[in-house]
Amino acid sequence: MDNLIEQTDRQILSNKIKSLELSWNELYDRYKHQELRISPAYQKLFRWGEEKQSRFIESLLLEMPVLPVYVMEVNPGEYELIDGLQRVCSYLRFRGEQLDDTQEEALVLKGCDFITDLDGKTFAQLPKALQIKLKRSFVRVQVIRLETDLFFKYRMFKRLHTGGGYLSDQEIRSCSIRLLGQDGLDFLEECSKNKDFKTVVSKAAADKKKMQYDQELVLRFFAVKNDNSQKPYPLTEHLTRYLEKITTKEIAFDFQKEKDLFENTFAFINQHWGKEAFSRKTPKGKIRNEFVLYYFDSVTVAVASYMDKIMAYGEEIEIVEAIDYVKYGPGLSACKTECMQDIRTRIALMQEKVGEILDGR
Questions:
Q1: Measured distance CA(308)–CA(270) in Å, rounded
Q2: What residues contact residue 24 under an 8 Å CB cut-off, 6+ apart?
Q3: Residue 104 DSSP one-character state
Q4: Which residues fall within 8 angstroms of residue 243, CB to CB, at 6 or more apart?
């Protein structure tokens, strides 16, 4: 027990955090002078609609309490925002700042439900007294000091954003992993732009694509293909840990070799199935307009596993027929959950069938 207390105390001492009470106007000035940065990747995740932005401004005018903002010190006196994006960007936009290289005009208040006369007003149209009140509203800013351990910063970012509801799992990964390194993220983005890949996943829901779902599918392909860890992590955690490992070089990852395999795999899939690669059939044999995730795992990893043999085999139609046999059969649908055991089982089913063709069994 004493050792546990010592470990806790030691961790607290190594994590340097300080609290500041700043006015929203000071945050605005720091942003204008580039002393408060919002990374472009994070800024793109500004999601609040105009009514929610407006009600936040109304809350400041009514002196309602607001949650703290978290920043990371990148240089002495210079900070990068890591939590509070929706609130900070709402204030900046009301003050007339254009965010994420957009041409959006300054926020015009709408949907205020306490002071309805605020609707239709810009910052410049507020009475001087209300402008001053808004500028002098205070917010607690939690600063993660420059000397704080890098992994603490990374894990804190993850915990602050997990469960918030505004960001997808992949968006949280992208923003948090960035603190450890950029190579893995750049690789996922580059692969997600591959034309063959984009074609075969085109039936995935459009709203998911806006939340980096395509990059998550790329990560999923590499993680379930390469990482044979038997630890019982949920899939989301499995993907995150794999991206951490290739980013920090905890495991070897040959970017060029993996990219070549990715391109060959999805070129083969696009050539033989196109947009229907991961769609089920109706009882009458008609292809449904859908994207089936458990098809994605089994087909892509099986093809990638035998890519060299497939290219040398010549009779590609036999491979296609073997994959369709498993894909539309009862065995695959019996292991379609997102647990890692089911994922491995369905991949093994597909690999076994393709292997039978290639090995002449």
A1: 17
A2: 60, 91, 134, 135, 136, 137, 138, 139
A3: P
A4: 173, 177, 184, 185, 188, 219, 223
